[in-house]
Structures are given as structure tokens and as C-alpha cells.
Amino acid sequence: MSAPETAPEATDDPPATGSSTGTGTGTAYDAHFRVWRGDIEGGELTDFTVEVNEGEVVLDIIHRIQATQAPDLAVRWNCKAGKCGSCSAEINGRPRLLCMTRMSVFSRTDTITVTPLRAFPVVRDLVTDVGYNYAKAREVPAFVPPEGLGPGEYRMRQEDVGRSQEFRKCIECFLCQDTCHVVRDHEENKRPFAGPRFLMRVAELDMHPLDAAEDEGLDRKSAAQEEHGLGYCNITKCCTEVCPEGIRITDNALIPLKERAADRKYDPLVWLGNKIRRRTT
Ligand code: SF4
Ligand code: SF4
Ligand code: FES
């Protein structure tokens, strides 16, 4: 089963730039947490009253609950620096990184609810099976190097380099995949829809000036529509709003990819050019 729905969050967060461990200073207070506990069979929210110290992030508090009250509480994390993408969960119903959400964004009297990612099956407690995303990653054909050029001989405009660099900031936290309404409550859409993270990858490759996929007969624009479900996206920008890397997924990847796919399909000159090109190759 997927995680339960939780109340919407009341407070926006300021930029979080890292985390620190609690120092036990005089600013400590007790916070009320509700943490979802269970497995694929079902579960429930469990209440904890837990100490919070200045400078701490939500992951620190989950660790303190593990250390003092629930040693078997399952949570996935690695870097505690917003770089590995493994601590994704939902805090007050919003997809977030546990290690990059500062406790200072909440009021001391708030109840803070932590639940697993809603769009993916629960393994245990806050840990979900994100295998869907790896399956989708494998469905996107890799960059096709241009014939006759070796690594080191590529030349690209800075604008093209910048676009790839923005998309390559992705830490594969899958918060964008989790928040996208196309799959969030629609398991049946997971087969035809790749999700924002992987449509962004298709867009990166389709706009890459050196990608020679078309010379190999691979039409990434058609594939975006027919194999990766680009048409399901109605550019709501929810994916962009939750991306911890600030990648402008919708504006810089999804909308341009939609425009390119529409040009390919409906512009008669583009259609004719492609026909001629295909015949001469
Ligand atoms: S913009 Fe598209 S991919 Fe992003 S959340 Fe909305 S529907 Fe999903
Ligand atoms: S695009 Fe952003 S939200 Fe989506 S997986 Fe990458 S880093 Fe996470
Ligand atoms: S633990 Fe690595 S991103 Fe949070």
C-alpha cells in the first residue's frame, strides 16, 4: 500500500543549506511528531514527543526518535547534506528531503507529521520502494555520440552546456516523481508515464546539439509522446516546486520538449524536412 494522506503544511520553508547535530543548548524544546509506522500490509501514525535543539533538521529528530524511543524505526539516508537523494519523505503532506528541512521553519507548537513517499509502495515505516524510477530510467536510450568525434573533441555553445548542467544537478531524490498528480494517486498511469525526472532526461538528450540519435533512426520527440507519456503532463509545475536542486523542470525541460514534439508533428516544413532527411540517410 501507499502512504496515508496527511494534512497540508502550514509553513513555507526558507532556503536550507545544510544541517547540524543538536548541541543541547538552552534553546532546546520538546516537539510533537507523528511518524507513520507500518509496512505493505498497513500501518498508522505514531505519536512521539521529542527534544529539538537549535540548528537541527527533521532527519536529526527522526534519528533521535530512533535513538531514544523506537530503535526499529526504518528511514533511508546517506549523506545528510542534500546530495544523495535518499532521505525523501513527506513532511506535513509535502514531499521533502528530511535532511534539508530545518526545524526552524516550524513553530514550536506545530505537530509535525512525517510519512513515506505517497506515490511509491511502502517497504517499512519511512522507506519506500522507488524501483519504478529505475525502471523508467532504463527505458530512456542513452546519448548517441556523433560519428567521427571522440571525447575531448566535442564543441558546444555555452547555452547548450548550461542546459545540460542544470538538468545534471538532479540528485535522483524522486520528489518530483512523487508529487506529480499523474502518478501520485494513479497507479495505472505508471506504465505509460515516465514522470518529470525522466521526461527531463529525454528533453536533455533531444536538445543536445551533439546527440546523433536521429542518425540511428531514434526519434526522441516521438518517443517522448508515444513511449514516455509526455501528453499526460499538463505543466502544472508541481514537480518544479518540490525540486530541492531548484531545477526548472517544467519551464526548461517539459515545455520545450512539448513544443519540439508539436513542431515535429504539426509543422509541414519540419515534417517535409524530416521525410527528406530520412530518405537521404
Ligand atoms: S508539470 Fe507535468 S510532470 Fe510536472 S507535476 Fe505537473 S503534470 Fe507532473
Ligand atoms: S529533478 Fe529535482 S526533484 Fe526530481 S529527482 Fe531530480 S533533484 Fe529530485
Ligand atoms: S541524506 Fe542524502 S539527501 Fe538527505
From TrEMBL:
SUPFAM superfamilies: 2Fe-2S ferredoxin-like, alpha-helical ferredoxin. The keyword Oxidoreductase applies. One of its GO terms (molecular function) is 2 iron, 2 sulfur cluster binding. Pathway: Carbohydrate metabolism; tricarboxylic acid cycle. Residues 1-26 are annotated as: Disordered. Signal peptide: none annotated. Residues 31-118 form the 2Fe-2S ferredoxin-type domain. One of its GO terms (biological process) is tricarboxylic acid cycle. Its cofactor is [3Fe-4S] cluster; [4Fe-4S] cluster; [2Fe-2S] cluster. Pfam families: Fer2_3, Fer4_8. It comes from the Bacteria. GO terms for cellular component: plasma membrane. Keywords: 2Fe-2S, 4Fe-4S, Iron, Iron-sulfur, Metal-binding, Oxidoreductase. Belongs to the succinate dehydrogenase/fumarate reductase iron-sulfur protein family. This is Succinate dehydrogenase/fumarate reductase iron-sulfur subunit. It comes from Streptomyces daliensis.
